[in-house]
Amino acid sequence: MNRSVLKFGLTWLAVVSAFVIPSQTVVAQDDVLKLWPSTPPNDDREVGPEQDFTKPEDRLIAGRRIIKLGNVSTPEMHVYLAPEETRNGSSVVICPGGGFSILAWDLEGTEVAEWLNGLGVSAIVLKYRVPTRDLDPKWQAPVQDTQRAISITRAHAENWGLNPDRVGVLGFSAGGHTAARAAIMTARQYEPVDESDQKSCQPNSAILIYPAWLANESEDGLLEDLNATPETPPMFLVHAYDDRVSPLSSALLFVALKKADVPCELHVFESGGHGYGLRPVDDQPVTRWSSLCSDWLQRMGWTE
């Protein structure tokens, strides 16, 4: 069987199985790991059973439905290692978006893992805790989960054939906010729980696609607690000018990174809206951002 066909089948099985059988049974080339050895930090919520909240009447993305995974109380890492013959050691933790209410699991998760695997980059799709929109701060649990996933990835780097110095983070919308914080904030947002947390929780690069809510109220700078420094990792940013989630999040982050002398590539397209993931639309060039990002990863030495 063609390897790409087999890989697609494994990916779809992993996604479907998450809703019909315990996710820990989905072990092939990939794996599923629980993030925390017991209850996640600062989390005593009762959110109900995990489920797909997609409705038949929901808007289609590029003509197809998406999986809106909600009520996540047991965060997990869904590991998609690139094929051994093309694996280059780079890895990326993917944070799907969903307004801190749900996770756009396939659109901004497993489909992105497939793309990265095609570049020889291993991918970890992060099932972080949602909903957290009513918590203060709403980003804390997702950032804790992201930092933990980055540390665990480095702890497994030798076994997975990865380079611990090439662990990136990629996020969309609310997941872009989460990924941005994981990249910029140097302090771990939870107390270490085991040996994995002896590994750094800061990524070596960040890819932010229509990141949300990074600008302050006056929209003349980033949020007060987001301070880019020369130690902040390089970033790749994409936004559409007509996005209802303001492109100023990306523009102001670019300015802050420039002032800190951090390498950054910013693409703002005239139109395209929000929530397109990797699904191409003929008259919207922004939906082909992955080609530009592939070139950036190559220039950064992540696909060698």
Structural class: alpha/beta
Question: What does the main sheet amount to?
Answer: 8 strands, mixed
Instruction: Estimate the helix proportion, in percent.
Output: 25-40%
Can you count the beta strands? 11
Give, in order, the helices and strands.
Answer: HEEEEEEHEHHEHEEHEH
- What is the strand arrangement across the widest sheet? 1-4-7-5-8-9-10-11
Proportion of residues in extended strands: 15-25%
Q: Tell me the number of helical segments per DSSP (H or I, 4 or more residues long).
A: 7
Q: What's the pLDDT, averaged over the residues? A: 91
Distance separating the two termini: 27 Å
Basic shape: globular
Low-confidence stretches: 1-29
Radius of gyration: 18 Å
